[in-house]
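About this split. The held-out portion is used to measure sequence recovery: a designer receives only the structure tokens and must propose an amino acid at every position. Recovery is the fraction of positions where the proposal matches the reference. Here is one held-out target exactly as it appears in the evaluation file.
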């Protein structure tokens, strides 16, 4: 897939060095390790592009591994959505997808080995006691009274835990490291707990489940991962991973941390995204306003635009906030090149051409793309009655008005120049129809003696298809919705105008059979795509033609 050589980053430099020194015999094995407890979001896309991108770059492999140690929050729905999203982004994982739960037997054996080495023990402190014994950042913790029990006792107890003799929470298995360590993760962390719970992969086989930290580093080791790439918050867990792998003398992948993606006007936390879904603030995980990959796809984002975005934001070790305008720019740029043009009138108003014959019809042939002849042409029908957008007419226009007004002329895109003679109004004074004249000598040539003010889009009324158009905008109107706000939560910043539904848009007939998911530039309106889910004719706005938020920001 790599069309042009991609610039490197500090991680590719580390790997190049490792390859020079032969650290992993030149092998490069990475993995993308999601927990299947929600849909993937744009932050995950950064990690996916990084991990799979590195494997591609070094002719290595990348595993897709589900870190599924927490059955109560996980589901098959999430597993399937994750596979679909990774594939859609354009990446191929090595062999079959992996599951941490595939390793539960080995992980159990590793835990027994730790106990036998005198490096783990069963602890019966209650959660409250455990917290008290743990100490604080300023004060060291205290040793558990169960810490010095014999390996034999502990192996026996651990076996009984596995057999289901005890209730949830009655006891845990802890690593025996250092209760005085300044790193809280090293203060005898829990490595196994009791959960009498069905697991989506292992069914009812287990009632003890390994903790994430213990599982994660050993799964990497068992998969011969060479470079275990993760986000910065795992830096403080690295000493624990090192301890586990060194104590058990397994293979030792090299962990490298990078800064997670933070986007303004966006939340990227599965917990918060789930709350938006569960509380009905959005239609679902794939609501086009969500920062999920499935939401972006339904919004009309292309996989390439997301990959380009991830490439551009780069990979560093310092946390920062990326402007969501960069993501919007990436899709705008990709669709500008790739999407065909079409005409759609979102807020229609009738135009009657008084001097056009009643039954006459013409077919105009127009280019699908202004810069790409290979995109071909399409046929657009023309007749006496048209629709134009209500916003393209003004009775008393502002200065520099470039559209239609009484007595003024404009060109219909791809068609004739028309002049407006009269605006017909309803009882409330709203303009409901415009009576215009067309100039038959202006097809493809300038009129003589006068100049049209601008170019507007239109559709032929009798040929138009009616569609629903959903104007999506940013879901939050606050740049940092999930930062700390005195009395508000991220839910208080939901943009009430993030979805405006137009039921009566009039589209040129070629759009009637657009395949679901196809993107178009609706001339002068923005980029839209046929909804992926509904069988009805619905178009979702992907992004406007220009960034209107930049102006709002500048005014602040
Ligand atoms: P969330 O905080 O949304 O729940 P998570 O980190 O708990 O995300 P995981 O399923 O554990 O979700 O993530 C899988 C991988 O994706 C991890 O390696 C994680 O570091 C990475 N990842 C998650 N969020 C981001 C982000 N915003 N930017 C870059 N990588 C991310
Ligand atoms: Mg996580």
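Reference sequence for scoring:
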């Amino acid at each position: 897939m790599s069309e042009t050589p991609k610039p490197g980053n500090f991680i590719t430099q580390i790997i190049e060095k490792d390859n020079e020194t032969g650290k992993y015999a030149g092998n490069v094995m990475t993995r993308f390790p999601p927990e299947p407890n929600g849909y993937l979001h744009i932050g995950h896309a950064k990690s996916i592009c990084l991990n799979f991108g590195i494997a591609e770059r070094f002719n290595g492999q990348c595993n897709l591994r589900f870190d599924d140690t927490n059955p109560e929050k996980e589901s098959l729905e999430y597993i399937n959505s994750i596979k679909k999203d990774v594939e859609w982004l354009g990446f191929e994982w090595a062999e079959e997808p992996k599951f941490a739960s595939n390793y539960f037997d080995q992980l159990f054996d590793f835990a027994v080995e730790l106990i036998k080495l005198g490096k783990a023990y069963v602890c019966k402190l209650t959660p409250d006691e455990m917290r008290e014994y743990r100490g604080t950042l300023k004060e060291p913790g205290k040793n558990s009274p169960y810490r010095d029990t014999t390996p034999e006792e502990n192996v026996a107890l651990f076996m009984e835990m596995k057999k289901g003799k005890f209730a949830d929470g009655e006891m845990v298995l802890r690593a025996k490291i250092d209760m005085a360590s300044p790193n809280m993760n090293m203060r005898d962390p829990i490595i196994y707990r009791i959960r009498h719970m069905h697991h989506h992969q292992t069914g009812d086989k287990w009632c003890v489940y390994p903790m994430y930290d213990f599982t994660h580093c050993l799964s990497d080791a068992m998969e011969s991962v060479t470079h275990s790439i993760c986000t910065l918050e795992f830096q403080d867990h690295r000493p624990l991973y090192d301890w586990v792998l060194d104590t058990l003398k397994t293979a030792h992948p090299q962990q490298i941390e990078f800064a997670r993606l933070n986007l303004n006007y966006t939340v990227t936390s599965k917990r918060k995204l789930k709350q938006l879904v569960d509380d009905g603030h959005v239609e679902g995980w794939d609501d086009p306003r969500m920062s999920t990959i499935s939401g972006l796809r339904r919004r009309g984002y292309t996989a390439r635009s997301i990959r380009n975005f991830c490439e551009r934001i780069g990979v560093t070790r310092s946390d920062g906030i990326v402007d969501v305008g960069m993501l919007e720019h990436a899709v705008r740029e990709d669709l500008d090149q790739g999407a065909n043009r079409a005409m759609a009138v979102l807020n229609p108003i009738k135009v009657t051409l008084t001097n056009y014959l009643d039954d006459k019809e013409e077919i105009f042939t127009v280019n699908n793309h202004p810069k790409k002849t290979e995109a071909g042409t399409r046929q657009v029908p023309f007749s006496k009655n048209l629709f134009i957008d209500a916003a393209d007419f003004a009775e008393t226009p502002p200065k520099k008005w470039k559209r239609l007004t009484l007595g003024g002329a404009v060109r219909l895109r791809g068609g004739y120049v028309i002049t407006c003679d009269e605006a017909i109004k309803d009882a409330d004074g709203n303009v409901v129809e415009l009576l215009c004249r067309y100039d038959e000598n202006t097809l493809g040539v300038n009129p003589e003696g006068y100049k049209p003010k601008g170019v507007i889009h239109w559709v032929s009324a009798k040929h138009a298809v009616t569609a629903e158009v959903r104007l999506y905008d940013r879901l939050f109107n606050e740049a940092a919705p999930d930062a700390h706000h005195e009395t508000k939560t991220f839910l208080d910043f939901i943009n009430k105008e993030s979805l405006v539904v137009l039921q009566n848009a009039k589209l040129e007939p070629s759009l009637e059979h657009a395949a679901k998911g196809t993107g178009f530039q609706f001339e002068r309106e923005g980029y839209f795509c046929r909804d992926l889910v509904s069988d009805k004719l619905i178009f979702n706005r992907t992004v406007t033609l220009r960034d209107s938020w930049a102006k709002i920001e500048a005014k602040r």
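Annotator remark: DSSP finds 13 helices and 25 strands in the chain.
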